[in-house]
Please model this.
Amino acid sequence: MVKKNQTLGEFIIDNQAAFPYSSGELSRLIRSLRLAAKVVNHEVNKAGLVDILGLQGDTNIQGEDQQKLDVYANETFIQTLINREIVCGIASEENDDFITISGKNMDNQNKYVVLMDPLDGSSNIDVNVSVGTIFSIYRRVTPIGTPVTKEDFLQPGNKQVAAGYIIYGTSTMLVYTTGCGVNGFTLNPALGSWYLSHPDIKFPENGSIYSMNEGNYVHFPLGVKKYIKYCQEEKEDRPYTSRYIGSMVSDIHRNMIKGGIFIYPKSSKANNGKLRLLYECNPMAFIVEQAGGKATDGFTRIMDIQPTELHQRAPFFCGSKNMVDKAEEFMQKYG
Ligand code: AHG
Ligand code: MN
Ligand code: MN
Model:
């Protein structure tokens, strides 16, 4: 029977039923992230008001410092996961090191670790432009019941169990994959419920949008410079349209719906670009591939890179399959 207006909760239950032997741990974890996302969403929505209400100083009524939104988002996601005792470890773009979570009796029996970029697009917070949260979930590789180690976090993206993002935009959406396609849910803020608004999202194979910070053109490798000129050429379906928000989540979300390519390449100033492999590239790559798109560093599949450091960066080419193929041709030819 066709289900209409299905909520995220109903969707999780339906899909869990397809895996009769699963313990439901992953479902509970996604529910926890969904809760934290609502709390952060509420804060993002009143970001402008906080300034008005906070005129007397930078402290709130309890005398605490008002927190920058990315610190707030970081604390909210971490605290929610701690409270629900649902993971054994967390690594965040905002923390120097990973966090070990132990349960009441110090014998945390959970098997998942979460890696996250709690607030993506920080430079857009103050100007009312969409920002996001990105998360990535792995099964730990060290024995359950022992403290997590770096090894549990330094896994290649192809080992991800689930990944998703929340986009705090004109509406708030949660988009995620558990390796069986990609589904998008839109928050009804009046009810606090997420509704399946974008079932089985497919990345168009071709597109006409290219997204990159062209201000850095002089620092880009020759392959990217040549590809930009290719995008701007008047030929066949070109020139393409340039769209760059500066919040990767929003740029990739738009491209996934409309067709396009997002590039954050290496540059003469940063050999591995800017974006973080574990918190940004891998989860987005998993989602993009699950939707039929492609994600590489210009040469190698992002999810096949073996990480060596928590905060490691990687050049990122991601989007419509045929567009990424073409950009890679330029990288291979010109470097
Ligand atoms: P974050 O806010 O988590 O530090 O990430 C910002 C990232 C990404 O969202 C965006 O695509 C990119 O930085 C923008 O960088 P530039 O300003 O260099 O274009
Ligand atoms: Mn980011
Ligand atoms: Mn961030």
User: Anything to note?
Assistant: The chain has two domains: 8-198, 209-334. The CA atoms of residues 210 and 242 lie 5 Å apart. The chain is about 30% helix and 20% strand. The pocket of manganese (II) ion (ligand 2) is lined by residues 117, 120, 248, 280 (CB under 6 Å).
